[in-house]
Amino acid sequence: MNAAPATVDAYIGRFPPNIQAVLRTVRATVQQAAPQAEERISYGMPALFQNGAVVYFGAFKNHLGLFPPVDDPALLAQVAPFAGPKGNLQFPYSQPMPLSLITAIVQARVRSNAAKPAAKSGRSVAAPAKRAARRSNAP
């Protein structure tokens, strides 16, 4: 398991059948919650992107990890029992996956990302021009 997998299917295929089943269920859940999002491997794990990173999920020894931390105030109390290091979520395999909570998290992230594009696009247009200006003024 040294090299990063090229696809989400390859990532899932690396695990035992019981973990593969969890990963497939979570994959279907996040895809349904964000049907317009692009699925890819990022940081060596499955991820969805729509106006930025929506969610990453990964299999660990005793839990499924969900990243990044939840910042939606309406969800903070619900995710508190699953909070791991740095606010990332850890869903133990010994418990049923909270699919409705995962759906709510993904939908909140999609809404949060959708509120950001105007600010991002303003920076992304200006940044290359500023870099070019700095290069032209370099000694």
Description:
The protein has 139 residues and is an alpha+beta fold. The protein has one domain: Aspartate Aminotransferase, domain 1 (Alpha-Beta Complex), CATH 3.90.1150.200. Helices cover 45% and strands 19% of the residues. The protein is built from five helices and five strands, in the order ααββββαβαα. The chain has helices spanning 8-13, 17-33, 76-79, 99-114, 117-136; strands at 38-42, 45-49, 53-59, 63-67, 89-92. Strands 1-2-3-4-5 form a five-stranded antiparallel sheet. Helix 2 packs across helix 4. It is globular. 20% of the residues are buried. Residues 120-139 have low confidence and may be disordered.
Range of helix content: 40-55%
Number of domains: 1
Order of helices and strands, N to C? HHEEEEHEHH
Whole-number mean pLDDT: 87
CATH class: Alpha Beta
- Oligomer designation: single chain
Tally of helical runs: 5
Alpha carbon gap, first and last residue: 47 Å
Task: Kindly state the number of beta strands.
Answer: 5
CATH topology: Aspartate Aminotransferase, domain 1
β-strand percent reads 15-25%
Shape: globular
The radius of gyration computed from the alpha-carbon positions, rounded to a whole number of angstroms, is 18 Å
